[in-house]
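Sanity check. The docking grid for 2-acetamido-2-deoxy-beta-D-glucopyranose depends on where the pocket ends up, so I'm generating a full predicted complex first rather than guessing from homology. Inputs follow.
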Amino acid sequence: MHTFSFLALGAIAPLLASAADCTREFLQSSADSLVAAQTAGDPSLLKPVSEGLVYQENFAAATFKSGILATPLKIDHSRHSLDTTQCATYTELISAKGSVPYVLGVQMRFSDGAVFKMDTLITKTGEWLFNATSTLNWASKEDWGTIPEAKRDSRAVIQAAADAYCDIFSDKSVVVPWGHPCARLEGGMYTGNGGPNDKCDVGIPSGVALVDRRYVIDETVGAVSVFLSFAGIPDSHEFRVENGKLRFVHTLTVMSAKGNGKTTGKRKARGSIMRPPRK
Ligand SMILES: *[C@@H]1O[C@H](CO)[C@@H](O)[C@H](O)[C@H]1NC(C)=O
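Predicted complex below; grid placement will be based on this.
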């Protein structure tokens, strides 16, 4: 049933070994320790970390010592997705009120009770549509809360909604389960106003492949985080799915990154997503 996400990880054995003893409590405390570490600028507060940890920032090899985690950030907002099936977490971190604003997305993957793979996407002033104040404003208004058990979508349905959205960038015939309402938060830009008529099917580019997708899925909140290569650009797309339909989309796009060595060519997106709206 979860074949696709396992294959996408390319690390089947450690995940299968860890899945059985991976609880929400464990994932929650690890993800909370990430927030504590980032707040203090002290990577040693992140626990537990595997000796063989593979750590990347913007899809390039990095170290804790010279990385973002060594910089204390005032965290104004954080939200976790906990994936007990893959033993993985996704955390959205917004620092809007500190001296230097940041919005981060972090995927952590665990094996044998410790994080063995960690990917951090870092957006800051100058990145596409970046505005941490606006991001904080919209992100704190949205409801990403627990969905009652009887109304939850399956992991497959949640992932399919995310994949449909990602696929339509290169194939306009794909049917995307748009929710009504639905809103996209990209950098600091919001496609809606928080009202019942918010729409997500506006200004989707064409001719660009969103590939190398790595998922973290939390069916208790209908959330799926997808780290992907947006025509070679490190990118995070996160979705909230309700009743099989897209409700919220959050993106982080690291235009300034040098790429991840898995680029899909030099094609440029032809839609609005690469062009900030006029003031
Ligand atoms: C960022 O967003 C805030 C809140 O929406 C707005 O007041 C501010 O002017 C924006 N900053 C820039 C640089 O666009």
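Relevant for the grid: Residues 142-257 form a domain with the Nuclear Transport Factor 2; Chain: A, fold (CATH 3.10.450.50).
Also worth noting: Residues 24-40 form the longest helix (17 residues).
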